[in-house]
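Case study 2.
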Amino acid sequence: MSSHDMEQDDAEQTVLLVMTSGPDTPARCGTPFYLGSVLAAMDARVHIFFTMAGVQLMRRGVAEELRAMEGGKRVIEFIRDAKRAGVILHVCDPALPGYGIDPQTDLIEEVDHVGRASDLGDLLLQADKVLSF
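Prediction:
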């Protein structure tokens, strides 16, 4: 396969990253945003859906203080890079109460959608590729 063929195969594909990791596993909290940025730059439509402990990363103040590696970039910087690249961020509404998160007041401005499990199901069925972290 030529590099041109590979470029054509990647064009307009939809990639879904399901983020279940949260601040208790900081080493897992930078890569999904970095990978999402790379894939968006390769013309893929990229969604990240936060559920389980992952929703905590979307709470104001958490990503601003969290670093994936000691001395590394703050997770909020990875999030903002991903947003600039065109990554769409979804948060699982049913997971929020378990972490005491109010979707009206507690989420960072980078969140695009607050959705239900059925929204995740739709994204899963429409995605060409699915990865989980």
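Strands lie at 14-19, 45-50, 88-92, 113-115, 129-132.
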